[in-house]
Design goal:
- This protein is an alpha/beta fold.
- The protein folds into two domains: about 140 residues, Rossmann fold; about 70 residues, DNA polymerase, domain 1 (Orthogonal Bundle), CATH 1.10.150.
- The chain has a six-stranded parallel sheet, with helices on both faces.
- Helix 1 crosses helix 4.
- It is globular, with a radius of gyration of 17 Å.
Amino acid sequence: MERTGFIFDLDGVIVDTAKYHYLAWKKLANQLGFDFTEEQNEQFKGVSRRRCLEILLEMGNVEVPKQQFEDWLVEKNTDYLGYIETMNESEILPDVPKVLKYLKQEDIAMALGSASKNARPILEKVNLLSYFDAIVDGNEVTKAKPDPEVFLKAAEMLDASPENCVVFEDAVAGIEAANAAGMLTVGIGDAEILSQATYNFKDFTEIDLEFIKQLTNS
């Protein structure tokens, strides 16, 4: 039987680090003299840090020299790292461990596929690193979602063919990337926004293990 691979995004799927990204971007926007709302932050989901800064500067109508742009990328990340330094297991989203434990127990291969360059330290902070057989993060890929590179690399590392992989995502760009890779997709969040996903759930509390079992056999 073909090997099944389960691939999880990090932010908004396993842990809610979006709030920390938001605080760091808001701080930078405020420094530049304009506000940045939580609604605007939705546009940053699943998007690379570089592209987020480009969008933020467009919002504020700010033009900067290349070096200043690079400096702000570093500043934002330093602020973000300061926030995640305090993370612990309480930051894991509800019922995520239930699914990870079941897959581990059934010896199903698991990978993380995230745009975050801080995926490993975050997983270490919340004590989930040992669940994953492979980590593909922003340090390993050159193309951001919706390009399928991150998920195709994860499948390769799991030794699973793309059509036998299941991806859990909370961002439109992530669902598009997984669909482009030919994978089955599970949207976590607003079903209307993530309408391109194969299945939709508000969060992991709506997912029962029977559903996960079906996915491992499909």
